[in-house]
What we know:
Blueprint: H1 11-21, E1 30-32, E2 48-50, E3 53-55, E4 65-73, E5 94-96, E6 105-110, E7 116-123, E8 131-136, H2 137-142, E9 151-164, E10 167-171, E11 181-188, H3 191-205, E12 208-215, E13 218-228, H4 231-243, E14 250-253
Parallel strand pairs: 4-8, 5-7
Antiparallel strand pairs: 1-2, 2-3, 4-9, 5-8, 6-7, 6-9, 9-10, 11-13, 11-14, 12-13
Amino acid sequence: MKTALTPYVETFLLLIVISALAACTGGHTTRVIDTPETRELKGWQKPYEVDGQRYNPLRDHQGFRQQGIASWYGKKFHGRLTSNGETYDMYAMTAAHKTLPLGVFVKVTNQRNGLSVVVRVNDRGPFVAGRIIDLSFTAASKLDVVDAGTAPVQIEALGYRNEKNGKVSYVAPQSYDIGSYAIQVGAFSVQGNAVRLADDLRYRYGAAEVQTTVKDGQPLYRVRAGEFSSLETAEQAKETFRKQGFPGSFVVAYE
Length: 255
């Protein structure tokens, strides 16, 4: 069972979010630890407790590998908020992890059959003994985990997704506070739609581009907007884009 714990920027927002999510925590008691030592940390960096168990989010992902049990979550949580404020989409390639930085992409390998997928961490959980990652329905389907419910996996943190000349790589910024970031606001199968949106965003925000990749043998046109020199400002901009009609927006890093 997946449990969501939503980080906060201000104490007021934290109280609202925890209240809103109380019904879907499966009976777990959650508490963000806010002390003089942690007060300056960003929301996703703050330690927190679930049923008295403390979790210390990692400041970066580099070198992170882990083996354990994966589970998945679907319809019950579809459409609810995830820990980074996105709306959970059971058909997207995402996952919940207790401590990895939110937004990092992770390679998950089913140790029973050797199948692998890459997912983006956008939630906290699972808070069930022995489980290390909660997969979206689609990610679990690709790993052949849905029917069994759980599977032994190995996870490897890759970094932030970067696409250049149709090639995908995963990059780790020297600092999660300083780097080069943009917001991916949408992906289209029709190039003209992507170009029109990019033109509009470029007019409104000064920078936007269309990146072309291939998915399932077909071209896919991803629209990215903005130029941000820190993860903090990029995360703030992501929220702006979400409120302006792009609910699936997320941060990407450039080399």
